[in-house]
Amino acid sequence: MFTYEPLWNTLKKKGISQYDLIKVHHVSTGTLDSLRKNKSVTMNTLNDLCIAIDCQIQDVVQVIKENE
């Protein structure tokens, strides 16, 4: 399972709002909704986010192991 909790923490640290993601970095509202709901997004989207907000992938997504 994935969580995008690191993304929200990174945005807060960098002073970037969700509005900024949409208007400045051209992240679609659909993508933002998927991120909010921890739904899957493409690696290309994760790459674009990392470039846009100048961070590493671990600053955006975390893998959570499910109980086996």
UniProtKB/TrEMBL annotation:
InterPro entries given in the database record:
Cro/C1-type_HTH (IPR001387), Lambda_DNA-bd_dom_sf (IPR010982)
Source organism superkingdom: Bacteria
Q: Name one Pfam family in it.
A: HTH_26
Instruction: Provide the HTH cro/C1-type domain boundaries.
Output: 7-65
Q: What is this protein called?
A: Helix-turn-helix transcriptional regulator
Which species is this UniProt entry from?
A: Catenibacterium faecis
The major lineage groups are: Bacteria, Bacillati, Bacillota, Erysipelotrichia, Erysipelotrichales
